[in-house]
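Readers outside the structure-tokenisation community will struggle with the description of the input data as it stands. Showing the layout once, in full, would remove most of the difficulty. For illustration, here is how one protein appears when written out as sequence plus structure tokens:
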Amino acid sequence: GDVGCCPDSYIYSSCINAWTRSTEDESAERAHALLERMEEPDTIAYTSVIQAYARSSRRDAAEKAELLLKHMNELVADGSRGVAPNFRTVNYVLQAFARKATFDNQYAEKA
């Protein structure tokens, strides 16, 4: 390949979206790792990673989704543009916590 070629935000976002739709165990972490490599992630990229956590079966997925939401809010407060959470962002965080509650109830019933 071309040594001078670097992935742009479109390529990163496409890969994040693919990991979001994956059923592999570590897909949310892989999407998150790609987000961290982006120079200027936007609302769509952050929301896609939060969506991956909402679909994840990790026990800490809801907390990770919430941390990303908080980070987005901090970026906005610091004057960053294009990263403001939207209704989908918040909805996926809520889904992550709902999923966590379901898992917690299943674990409690088995104990």
